[in-house]
Each structure stands twice: as structure tokens, then as C-alpha cells.
Amino acid sequence: MKPTFSFIVPVFNEEETLEEAYRRLSAILASLDGEGQIILVDDGSRDRSLEMMRDLHRRDPRICYISLARNFGHQIAVTAGLRFAQGDAVIVLDADLQDPPELIPKMIEQWRAGYHVVYAQRTARQSEGPTKKLFAYLFYRVLRLLTDVDIPSDTGDFCLMDRKVVDVLNALPERGRYLRGLRAWIGFRQTAVPFEREPRFAGEVKYTFRKSFGLAVNGIVSFSRVPLRLATYLGLLVGCCALGMVVVVIYWRLFHPALPLIGYTIITAAIFFLAAVQLFCLGILGEYLGRVYEEVKGRPLFTLKEIAGIEGHAAKTASPPPFMRPASSQEIQPASNPER
Ligand code: UDP
Ligand code: MG
Questions:
Q1: Mutation pick for ligand 1 pocket among 7, 12, 213 (CB with most ligand atoms within 8 Å)
Q2: Fewer CB within a 10 Å sphere, N or C end of the chain?
Q3: Is residue 339, in this structure, part of any structural domain at all?
């Protein structure tokens, strides 16, 4: 029978949290009025996470798992989960229980009230360092300033999405998956449910500063062309400075002919400054060019090692399903959900 609810849980080295996550998620699932599946997405874990998933799947048929062939990163893990989710409502949440599963019934209430996307919005972040809080606070504001898409502040990937929305997301061919941005971009009726982000249940943070920074840059570059324009503005600004300096030089020559011109230091400073501006602009260009390169290569977003419990995919672990080839958007949907 086709499940009504799919929970997608990306997992990267979460052996310490999986059992507890299963306990809390299955309790929520049992309380819901409809069939459900929990899709654990192993993002190339190097600990016992995958073995634990196999075991959970044996114990409880509502547990499905897919295992990516290496660590592709959180956004791709969620993307992979979305491709396989069969439910009418799909809920994405972290394995470390920072996104409290107990919020799900509230999200479902909103879904039943007619919203297509119900995203959780943080009112507080417990036990996260001041640097991370400040970084997140600034990032979301800068992102909103730079983009035309209305990406709500302080929201992560914890959300519920209607089947329609998931189908649209799955059909988007782009490789740069900044999911919370894409989710906002596609429109539909959206609403927020406030929540307090809890501390991690156990284990270490898997999003290193480098990964978080990469995600932030990805968010800005995927949704804004303002940085590209920045080069033009900087060029104009520096041009004006140069003109100003010409005026100073003429003034100096006319009114202080005896005094030597300001000289060596200012020239060196100007060279360094201009070199920095040029490298900065080149860097920005590189960010965009790199993304074009990624899109053009057309590689699949992820490769699969193992899959279990998902209807129609049980026997497909050996030969990759069609959407794993660089595919046109039409090919993507039927693979994940044959009856649609
Ligand atoms: N995660 C993942 N792949 C990664 C990094 C993280 O699938 O490369 C998962 C991780 O297991 C967790 C979720 O993404 O379920 C969020 O990661 P984490 O808790 O480390 O990040 P934070 O809560 O700081 O955003
Ligand atoms: Mg976390």
C-alpha cells in the first residue's frame, strides 16, 4: 500500500543517535492516521550506521534505507531521499534529533489545512556556539538582501512538503541543490511553524565549518547575480578614486610645484589594492563559472550502493535506476514513483 507519509532522514556517521531517532520517529509515525515510511539515507557513513539501518529494516518494515556510494553531503542526501519518497506528504528532518519529531503532527495539521510546504522556523538555537549563531544570523540576512527569491530567515531543511512540491523539486534538473532556496523558489502555498532547535542528541556535528561555509556560498551564488554585478560597481568605484587622484596631482603641480608628489607608498598601496579587487572579482567569476561547469558536465547527483524497503526498487541495487544516468527531467519522476 502506498504510504501517506514519508520521513526522510539524512545520516552521516550517526551510530550514536540512530536508535533514539528510530524510537522517537516510529512513535510519531504510529500516532499518525495513515501509513508511513521512514527513509534513512546513508550519506557514505564510515561507522556502523549502515549496519544499524539494515538491522532496523529487518525489525520494522516501515524503515527503508538507501545508501549512497560515498559522502555526497547533506543536501544531496536529502535530494536522494526525495527521489525515492512515495508519500503524499514528505517530511525532511535531521538524524541527530535537533529537529524535534514531535513537531511533525503540527506540520501535518497545516498540510491538511491546505498548505503545500510547511517549514519549521527556529525561534531559538540551544547549545549552538555564538560564532555559529552569529554566522547563521548574518548569512540569512545577507541572503535575503541579495536574492529576489523570498527565502525565509532562520529556516533549515526541516519541513513538510506536499507530493506536488516534491515532484516539482525532483524534476528540477539543476545540480546545485540549495534545497531551502529551491523550496522557496517553486512557490505554492507555504507557511511556517515556529520551533526551538534542540541540542544534538549525541555525537559530533557533521557539518564542519568548511561545509557550512560552502553551503552559504552555494546559497548566495545559486540564487543571486548581485555578486557578479559587484565587480562592475567596484570597477566604477576604483575608477572614481583614480579620477580623484588625477585632480589631486593637478592641484599639487599647480599650487605646490616645489614639493615632491606624495610618492612611493601610495603607489604600492594602490597596486596592492587594485590587485586585491581584481582577484576578488576573478574569484566571484570563478564561483559562477565553476557552477556552470558542474551543470554542463551533467553527472548524476549521486551514486547508490544499496537500497532496501522501497517498493519497486528492491532488486535494483546492482543496476543503477534510470535517473542515475544524466537524465532529462522527465525521466527522473517515474523512477522514484512508478504509479505517478
Ligand atoms: N549529514 C549528512 N551528510 C553530511 C553531513 C551531515 O547526511 O555530509 C547529516 C547528519 O547526519 C545530520 C544532518 O545531516 O542528520 C545535519 O548534520 P549536523 O547535525 O552535523 O549539522 P547541523 O545540525 O549543525 O546543521
Ligand atoms: Mg545537527
A1: 12
A2: N
A3: no
